Amino acid sequence: MSPGSVPLPSSPAPGREDEVRQSLRAVIDPELGDTIVDLGMVRAIGVTGGRVVVDVALTIAACPLRTQIEKDVRGRLEALDWVESVEIRIATMDAAERAAVMARARWKAREDAPETAIPATARVLAVASGKGGVGKSSVTVNLAVALAQRGLTVGVLDADIWGFSVPRLLGMEGEVEARKGKMVPLEKRVGAGMVRVLSMGFLADEEQAIMWRGLVLNRAVQQFLQDAHWGDLDYLLIDLPPGTGDVQMGLARLLPRTEMLVVTTPPLAAQKVAARAADMARKGYLRVAGVIENMSDFTCEHGTTYALFGTGGGARLAHGLGVPLIGSIPLHPDLAAAGDAGTPVAGGDGELASIFAELARMVAEEVAPLLETSSCSARLVERVEAAVASGDLEPG
Ligand SMILES: Nc1ncnc2c1ncn2[C@@H]1O[C@H](COP(=O)(O)OP(=O)(O)OP(=O)(O)O)[C@@H](O)[C@H]1O
Ligand SMILES: [Mg+2]
After folding, report:
1. Residue 394 lies in a domain
2. Is residue 163 in contact with ligand 1, taking CB distance under 6 Å?
3. Fewer CB in a 10 Å sphere around the end CB: N or C, the chain?
4. What domain range includes position 158?
5. Is the model's pTM score more than 0.90?
6. Is 295 in the pocket of ligand 1 (CB under 6 A)?
7. Do residues 106 and 155 both lie within one domain?
8. In which band, very low, low, confident or very high, does the pLDDT at 377 lie, cut at 50, 70 and 90?
9. Which of 137, 138, 200, 298 to mutate to test the pocket of ligand 1 (most atoms within 8 A of CB)?
């Protein structure tokens, strides 16, 4: 059944349709690196009062991103204050539509994204916040360790060039070596998995770093992505520097499939800056995958829990952004102490370790599951590329 054949509710409110379309511009197909609106995946929008019906056409029926795209569409629309109900009708593109979308994705990929050393199947998650000191780096390293404990290979790119902290937090030291002129990330075995790290902290001192094959400081992130041997990775976590700006925009250009995990603390002010960070990401067309609340509450040794900074901030921000709240991490002195000692709590077996294990489970199973490459659209793009290269298909 083609969704076009089912009449959409009549629309007395064209303004609302525009608003819906605008909201859907925040929904990114992470593999194709573009908004579902610009990719032509939104076929029709119908609004009757508070009821919204959206027809979404996927590239292929068994698209592994289907659930995620549906969730994102629903989340974005439910965040609009006048929306009462959302119906999403999923259809599959026909061959002509698919060719058009692939042509656009291919064009965008060529225009926007230079080659990187990050494997096409790795899921890329950048940990961001609007404000400094909310725990981005602590969340990044602990999530990396918790994912590695699931037997995965996790890259950690420390994009905080001036204020790097990943080496210390992971208790890793050493110097980056070169193989065939490219940087080799430092490795650490964690359980059945592996963590691979690149950080300015491994480039000895700054002077030496600049000398190191002419590494240019303001392009270090790009060089970490391009001039490195990352090998096979399941996830790449990127620890962003505080604030919004250049690095995010750079990532949107270099690695448009990057998705953001926004870290916030409970107070309202923190949510507002975090929301600004998410907004920046959207302007650069990075998908926001979810919110993590850090320092949510504090339980003293007598078992009494204090919400020092208020409660519900993470949930409110997640709702406002139309994305899931992935987890809440309590304020706990052990977390800071373990960071100082270079032994991340996620590698232990206490309560904090299980909180990060649950966070990793959410990421790996719900929020950003690994893609099955046999059927995903990234693979489709590759096939189209191959067909174009062999002259079977007219380039679009
Ligand atoms: N849940 C927590 N409980 C207790 N201390 C925490 C928690 N999360 C982070 N911290 C501590 O707060 C400080 C800041 O954390 P972290 O360096 O991870 O933040 P950041 O957002 O990366 O900071 P920056 O913006 O400077 O990069 C550190 O001393 C860390 O140990
Ligand atoms: Mg940091």
Report:
1. no
2. yes
3. N
4. 123-367
5. no
6. yes
7. no
8. low
9. 138
